[in-house]
Automatic annotation (TrEMBL):
Tagged with keyword Transmembrane: yes
A UniProt-annotated Pfam family: 7tm_4
Family: Belongs to the G-protein coupled receptor 1 family.
Membrane topology: Multi-pass membrane protein
GO cellular component: plasma membrane
Locations listed in the record: Cell membrane
Keyword field: Cell membrane, G-protein coupled receptor, Glycoprotein, Membrane, Olfaction, Receptor, Sensory transduction, Transducer, Transmembrane, Transmembrane helix
InterPro entries named in the record: GPCR_Rhodpsn, GPCR_Rhodpsn_7TM, Olfact_rcpt, Olfactory_GPCR
All copies of domain G-protein coupled receptors family 1 profile, residue ranges: 44-264
Protein name, per record: Olfactory receptor
PROSITE patterns xref list: G_PROTEIN_RECEP_F1_1, G_PROTEIN_RECEP_F1_2
Spans through the membrane: 30-51, 63-81, 101-121, 142-167, 200-229, 241-264
Amino acid sequence: MFSLGWSNQTFITEFILLGFGNLPELQTPLFLLFLVIYIITMAENILTLVLVVTNRHLHTPMYFFLGNLSCLETSYTSTVLPRMLASLLTGDRTISYSGCITQMYFFVFMLTAECFLLLVMSYDRYLAICNPLHYAALMRSWVCIQLVSGSWIMAFFTSTLITLLMARLTFCGPNNIDHFFCDFAPMLKLSCSDTSLIELVNLLLCFAIILPTFLLTLICYVCIIATILRIPSTTERHKAFSTCSSHLIVVASFYGSIIISYMIPTAVLTPLLNPLIYSLRNKEVKKLFRLLHTGTLVTSG
């Protein structure tokens, strides 16, 4: 922190991430644990992305969206974990003001983008199961690109707005963030200026983005489940449900993590679990992994 010579006001130039508290005896085990999580998460998502890009059998809307989700979660994890690992390794939990604002910007960006991307993926499954005859016509390549581009653009504008409003706030101390990364709410608690505007904007964005995307995703799955239950054949019902069950689990884990975001480090767990969920429940991906393991996978352009 530094003080202005002409006043008694002190402004924060760095924050301290309290993280998991003062537990020196757990620093090394926690570092090793999160290092393994980071490596596995990056490997899972990068491998998924490579498979989707390089194999022509996966050049479908569902895998195009899955590839974007893997790309998003690779960035998601890299926004939080490297700084946490550095803190656990060195014991230095300080982060500069600009570094904290930057980390918050990318975290809000990824969070918002995932809300929209999961909605797009649920809409894709809705069309595939509830309107299969028109699926190919409705979910063309340019439509998929527009849907994904819209998700990224909305995330950009949302995170930019929140970050600009946060940058206008004054932080006079204390500078201890009760979290392991620079999240919006813990930072807001430390401001010594009027936060009513940013709190109002944040509330409006929650009602305009998180709530509608969740409700629309939920509606899609209500329609999907209702359609599946009307299928007379047990085999066909099971086949239809298997095509969307992995995404439903991911949606539940994502929105569940938002609800309990201050109880467990969900920013770490969600990107780790999502590729496992998709891989373990998807026949095409499992087949490709087996082929890759035996060395018989031929890359197609």
